[in-house]
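Input structure tokens:
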């Protein structure tokens, strides 16, 4: 029990803030809703920033080439997985507003990714010799998720931009 207390109390506050943000974003997806595309961008932007920070830390730690590959390959795999639909695409409502169907998948995915990254960090703390490999595994998980959420966000963004361009050219 002492080990759990030490792990929890030595976790940086931003890790808990990120968990709360991901839970809020996932819970929002549990019911159908209309939302502005800027708000829908929070998950892809969050995962992208998280993966870039992880890559930067790994590069700063001396894993330049490996970190770039551990970020780029999973990100591209996630981004290219866009045609594999796991949830329905949002329907355009008006302007930048889209209708999203209810789904529990994002909440489960967000918590799973956070838990995996957190677990890998804890494991690295107990196994310093494996810290570099575990850091790269965590980076790959973040990059894959960033790519996948980007792939899900790109079609509504493209629709919004296309409609906006059509409105500008007709006025």
């Amino acid at each position: 029990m002492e080990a759990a207390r030490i792990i929890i109390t030595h976790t940086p506050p931003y890790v808990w803030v990120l968990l709360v943000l991901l839970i809020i974003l996932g819970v929002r997806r549990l019911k159908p809703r209309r939302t502005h595309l800027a708000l829908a961008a929070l998950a892809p932007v969050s995962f992208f920033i998280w993966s870039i920070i992880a890559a930067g830390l790994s590069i700063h730690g001396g894993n330049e080439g490996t970190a770039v590959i551990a970020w780029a390959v999973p990100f591209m795999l996630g981004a290219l997985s866009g045609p594999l639909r796991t949830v329905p695409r949002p329907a355009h409502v008006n302007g930048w507003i889209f209708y999203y169907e209810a789904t529990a998948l994002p909440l489960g995915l967000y918590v799973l990714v956070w838990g995996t990254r957190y677990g890998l960090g804890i494991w690295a703390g107990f196994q310093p010799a494996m810290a570099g490999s575990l850091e790269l595994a965590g980076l790959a998980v973040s990059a894959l998720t960033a790519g996948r959420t980007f792939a899900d966000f790109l079609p509504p963004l493209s629709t919004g931009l296309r409609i906006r361009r059509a409105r500008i050219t007709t006025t």
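The helical segments are 2-9, 13-28, 37-40, 42-60, 64-80, 105-126, 131-170. The mean pLDDT is 89.
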